[in-house]
Design brief:
CATH topology of the largest domain: Rna Polymerase Sigma Factor, Chain: A
Protein name: RNA polymerase sigma factor
Largest sheet: none
GO biological process, one term: DNA-templated transcription initiation
GO molecular function, one term: DNA binding
Family: Belongs to the sigma-70 factor family. ECF subfamily.
Number of strands: 0
Keywords: Membrane, Sigma factor, Transcription, Transcription regulation, Transmembrane, Transmembrane helix
CATH class of the largest domain: Mainly Alpha
Distance between the termini: 58 Å
């Protein structure tokens, strides 16, 4: 009789254990998710100081709020929940710096790879919407992503992408028109 090796706990299980104060589970969750999270955040901002702050704030929030994770709601996953926290912390970091007239150092002007939340959105909203999102020009998709998915204002999107506010407004309008046409 062949024995199966013990299965590693998934991230949802690690998060539930973290909610009970299990430090080893939290450390394992961090070990599994932090490299991926840092990469995703660097697609949004290459300022190492901001990334470090966001990572620290994210995992502090995960430790403190692990008990509030409700993975069963809307088919959410632990990794998606961590990403949501991180995006909100990144938005907060940009908002703190929004009073500057220029983007924070190292902010990318374009994203080279689809972000995880883009892929998740495309998978959850249906094939036609996912296809419409993928068919958008990259400069339209990144504005739509920042404003619709991340909840950034026009000014914050302009800072994030290093664009004038008028350009952001124009691209957002063009993206909405293109999405409407693709879906009709």
């Amino acid at each position: 009789m062949k024995h199966k090796p013990p299965r590693e706990p998934d991230e949802e299980h690690l998060l539930r254990r973290t909610a009970r104060g299990d430090r080893a589970a939290f450390e394992e969750l961090y070990r599994r998710t932090s490299p991926w999270l840092a990469i995703r955040l660097r697609h949004r901002c290459s300022d190492d100081q901001i990334i470090a702050e966001v990572m620290q704030e994210t995992y502090l929030a995960v430790w403190r709020a692990a008990g509030s994770f409700a993975g069963v709601v809307a088919g959410g996953s632990a990794v998606g929940w961590v990403w949501t926290i991180a995006v909100r912390r990144l938005i907060d970091a940009f908002r703190r710096r929004a009073h500057h007239a220029h983007p924070p150092p190292g902010v990318h002007e374009s994203l080279s790879a689809p972000a995880a939340e883009e892929e998740a959105l495309a998978g959850t909203v249906g094939d036609s919407v996912g296809d419409a999102l993928r068919s958008l020009a990259p400069e339209l998709r990144e504005v739509l992503q920042a404003m619709a998915l991340d909840g950034l204002s026009v000014r914050e999107t302009a800072i994030l992408l290093g664009l004038p506010e008028g350009t952001v407004k124009t691209r957002a309008r063009r993206a909405r028109i293109a999405m409407r046409e693709a879906l009709s």
